[in-house]
Specification:
Elements lengths: L1 H10 L6 H11 L9 H8 L3 H10 L5 H16 L1 H38 L3 H13 L2 E6 L4 H14 L3 E3 L6 H4 L7 E6 L6 H12 L3 E6 L12 E4 L12 H18 L1 H16 L14 H7 L14
Parallel strand pairs: 1-2, 1-3, 3-4, 4-5
Length: about 325
């Protein structure tokens, strides 16, 4: 923001008209930029929305959204991550409406996934899958929003591979990692602000010789320096408080590739697991009857009839 302010002040003597009015408004109302839509800001600045777009482009941004993102990030850091994100969402819903917000939400989640895929490296992907395939035991943890990604990974991989453990969120976590070796794998999901518990467990796993797989948001994240295999993902979407779309995508990819690598043995275990679930009565199964369902009757009776006099019964 400081750099943008300096550029705006340097630009001010060189411009006139709507651009100059937009600069005056932004410098005087910086706190409004993160929480108001571009149209609202343009109206309050008494300029056309396209003026704000052109100003952002003169400052080196692709458009106003990229320019605004700098102010959103500063606002979130100043107010506190959760409060700042919530305030942004309130503003966006007011300006876009429910359906408009839903469309923008989906676009941002897809962008998170696209950029997560773009960050994948063949070496890390192949190495992590090989380690998971050969591992005697796999331990996985994700705190706060990332519990969902960790749970999904452990639940799915456990169907195909024994020795997969979702680490508890309660006490005694370090005891669950006692006796690790180079034949074991630890997988941790954590992004800023980084979980001290996840980092501590990764350090313990590393010290005992286990392979460490990290899903995080930066190569400079604390857990990244411990990782044998590193996967980067974005977190900034419209999901509250953070987007986990990228983390879940990586989890699903790792499980799918590992199952494929395990081959027939995994397929046999998956088949047995499915039968066990059915036998426990977990699934709701409709009873089959000989009677046709009403919809089928309607379909069967909707055949076109032949024209002409119907034949009399004999």
């Amino acid at each position: 923001m400081t750099e943008i302010d300096a550029k705006l002040r340097q630009l001010m003597p060189k411009v006139r008209g709507p651009i100059a009015e937009a600069i005056h408004f932004i410098l005087a109302n910086k706190d409004e930029i993160p929480v108001r839509s571009m149209r609202e800001l343009a109206k309050r600045a008494n300029v056309a929305p396209v003026t704000l777009v052109r100003l952002a482009q003169r400052l080196g941004f692709d458009g106003f959204d990229d320019f605004r993102e700098v102010y959103v990030e500063a606002f979130i850091n100043r107010q506190g991550r959760n409060l700042g994100q919530a305030a942004q969402l309130v503003s966006l819903v007011k300006s876009e409406g429910a359906l408009g917000f839903a469309a923008k939400f989906a676009e941002r989640e897809l962008e998170v996934q696209r950029r997560t895929i773009a960050e994948l490296k063949e070496k890390d992907l192949h190495g992590a899958v090989q380690a998971l395939t050969n591992a005697e035991r796999v331990f996985v943890i994700g705190r706060r929003p990332y519990f969902a990604a960790a749970y999904g990974f452990a639940y799915s991989l456990r169907k195909a591979k024994t020795g997969t453990t979702l680490l508890d969120t309660g006490g005694g976590l370090s005891l669950e990692l006692d006796g690790l070796s180079s034949k074991d794998v630890f997988l941790g999901f954590t992004t800023y602000p980084y979980s001290r518990i996840t980092l501590g467990l990764a350090q313990k796993a590393r010290s005992q010789g286990a392979k460490v797989v990290a899903v995080t948001d930066s190569e400079n994240a604390p857990i990244a320096h411990l990782a044998d295999f590193l996967f980067l993902t974005l977190t900034r979407g419209y999901a509250f408080p953070d987007s986990i779309a990228g983390a879940q995508l990586i989890a699903n990819i790792l499980v799918a590739l590992t199952v494929s690598k395990l081959g027939p043995e995994a397929l046999d275990r998956i088949r047995r697991n499915e039968l066990e679930i059915e036998e426990t009565g977990e699934y709701v199964v409709e009873r089959r009857t000989r009677k046709q369902p009403p919809s089928a009757k309607r379909l069967s009776s909707s055949k076109p009839r032949k024209r002409g006099r119907a034949a009399r019964p004999v």
